Structures are given as C-alpha cells and as structure tokens.
C-alpha cells in the first residue's frame, strides 16, 4: 500500500506539490487580506493589492524551490525567470482585482466572501502560467 501511494505521489508530484504550495500561497493571500481589510479596516482594494504582492513573493520562492524545482545557470537567467513570474502573476493579480471590484462594488458580495471566490480563478491562471510560460 505504501509503495502504491509513493508511486502515485511521484507520478503526480508536480501537481500535488503545486496544490499544496498553491494552498499555502492562497492562505497567505487570504490571511493578509483579512488582516488589512477586516481587522485594520483598510480599503479593500488596497488590502487586496498588499495581499497579492506578498503572496506573489511567497509563491515565487515555493514554486521555484519545491514545485517546479528549476535551477538557473546564472544571475541573468534567475532575473529573467523572476521577471516572467512577476509579470504573469500581475496578470492573475489584475484578474483578482477586477473580480473583487465586480463582486464587491457591482454585486455587493462581502469582501471576505469575494476574496475566497476570486481565488478559484487565480489558482487556475497561476498554474497555467507557471507550468507553460515560467518554469520551463
């Protein structure tokens, strides 16, 4: 039984690790948003921007080291990879901001509920961007 589980893990390691670290990244995003939006009463779009920035930084480190396990040969390759990562994450961050604005200001959904809902879109976008455009 243990060998079958390990075989399944190794076969789907990248997806399993992405889900795990993506879950942690999503948790960072939601917790930071909650702190700034709900506890500190900052405007929700500013709280969301801060949450996005911090979760992008967390995600870069975990994706590079633990999920896609890429290694760059030199500083230039590291910088290029980082810029691609930030660029694509800013695209998904824009989708996050737009979704939040639509849900909160147009549909009148609670900010914390809206944040949870937007994460489904963001996680899928981020996996596609990371898998096919960033960590090659």
TrEMBL record:
<feature type="transmembrane region" description="Helical">
    <location>
        <begin position="42"/>
        <end position="61"/>
    </location>
</feature>
<comment type="similarity">
    <text>Belongs to the GtrA family.</text>
</comment>
<feature type="transmembrane region" description="Helical">
    <location>
        <begin position="116"/>
        <end position="135"/>
    </location>
</feature>
<keyword id="KW-0812">Transmembrane</keyword>
<dbReference type="GO" id="GO:0000271">
    <property type="term" value="P:polysaccharide biosynthetic process"/>
</dbReference>
<dbReference type="Pfam" id="PF04138">
    <property type="entry name" value="GtrA_DPMS_TM"/>
</dbReference>
<dbReference type="InterPro" id="IPR007267">
    <property type="entry name" value="GtrA_DPMS_TM"/>
</dbReference>
<dbReference type="InterPro" id="IPR051401">
    <property type="entry name" value="GtrA_CellWall_Glycosyl"/>
</dbReference>
<feature type="transmembrane region" description="Helical">
    <location>
        <begin position="15"/>
        <end position="36"/>
    </location>
</feature>
<dbReference type="GO" id="GO:0005886">
    <property type="term" value="C:plasma membrane"/>
</dbReference>
<protein>
    <submittedName>
        <fullName>Putative flippase GtrA (Transmembrane translocase of bactoprenol-linked glucose)</fullName>
    </submittedName>
</protein>
<feature type="domain" description="GtrA/DPMS transmembrane">
    <location>
        <begin position="18"/>
        <end position="135"/>
    </location>
</feature>
<keyword id="KW-0472">Membrane</keyword>
<keyword id="KW-1133">Transmembrane helix</keyword>
<feature type="transmembrane region" description="Helical">
    <location>
        <begin position="82"/>
        <end position="104"/>
    </location>
</feature>
């Amino acid at each position: 039984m243990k060998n079958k589980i390990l075989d399944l893990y190794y076969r789907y390691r990248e997806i399993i690790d992405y889900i795990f670290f993506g879950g942690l990244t999503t948790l960072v995003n939601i917790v930071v948003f909650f702190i700034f939006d709900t506890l500190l009463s900052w405007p929700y779009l500013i709280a969301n921007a801060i949450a996005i920035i911090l979760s992008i930084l967390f995600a870069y480190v975990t994706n590079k080291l633990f999920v896609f396990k890429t290694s760059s040969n030199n500083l230039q390759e590291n910088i290029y990879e980082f810029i691609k990562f930030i660029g694509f994450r800013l695209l998904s961050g824009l989708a996050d901001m737009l979704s939040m604005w639509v849900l909160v200001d147009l549909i009148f959904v609670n900010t914390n509920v809206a944040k949870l809902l937007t994460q489904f879109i963001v996680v899928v976008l981020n996996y596609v961007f990371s898998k096919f455009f960033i960590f090659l």
